[in-house]
C-alpha cells in the first residue's frame, strides 16, 4: 500500500510541480475563466428563480475558450484544438445575435 502512495506522490509531483511552466499557468488561468461562466450563470439563475444565461456567460466562454485554444495549439492537441475552435464560433455567434437583438430593440424605441 505504501508503494501505491509513493507512486501517486511521484505522479502528482511530475504532473503538477515538475512540468509547471508559463504555459501550464496560462492553462490554469484559461480554465478559471472558462469555469467562471458557470458561476455567473448559476448566480443569475438563482437571482431570477429560473434558468438564465446572462451575456457575461458568453464573454467568459469567449475569453476562457480563446485562452484554452491558444493553450491547446501550444500543446498540439488536435482533439482539444477542434473542440475549442468550434466553441469559439458558437460563443461569437451568440454574442452577435445578442448585439443584433439589442440593436433592433433600440431601433424600436426611437
Descriptive report:
The protein is mostly helical and 110 residues long. The chain has helices at 2-18, 22-48, 55-75, 78-109. It has one domain (22-109). 88% of the residues lie in helices and 0% in strands. Helix 2 packs antiparallel against helix 3.
The number of helices is 4
Radius of gyration: 19 Å
* SS class: mainly alpha
> In which range does the helix fraction lie?
over 70%
Order of helices and strands: HHHH
Number of domains: 1
Amino- and carboxy-terminal Cα gap: 74 Å
- The residue-averaged pLDDT reads 92
User: Uncertain spans, ≥5 residues at pLDDT below 50?
Assistant: none
Largest sheet: none
C-alpha geometry: elongated
Indicate the proportion of strand residues: under 5%
Q: Tally of extended strands?
A: 0
Outline of the structure:
With 110 residues, this protein is mainly α. It is built from 4 helices and no strands.
Task: Please supply descriptive tags for the structure shown above.
110 residues; 0% strand
List the helices and strands and how they pair.
Elements lengths: L1 H17 L3 H27 L6 H21 L2 H32 L1
Helix pairs in contact: 2-3, 3-4
GO molecular function: lipid-A-disaccharide synthase activity
Protein name: Lipid A biosynthesis N-terminal domain-containing protein
Organism: Mesorhizobium metallidurans STM 2683
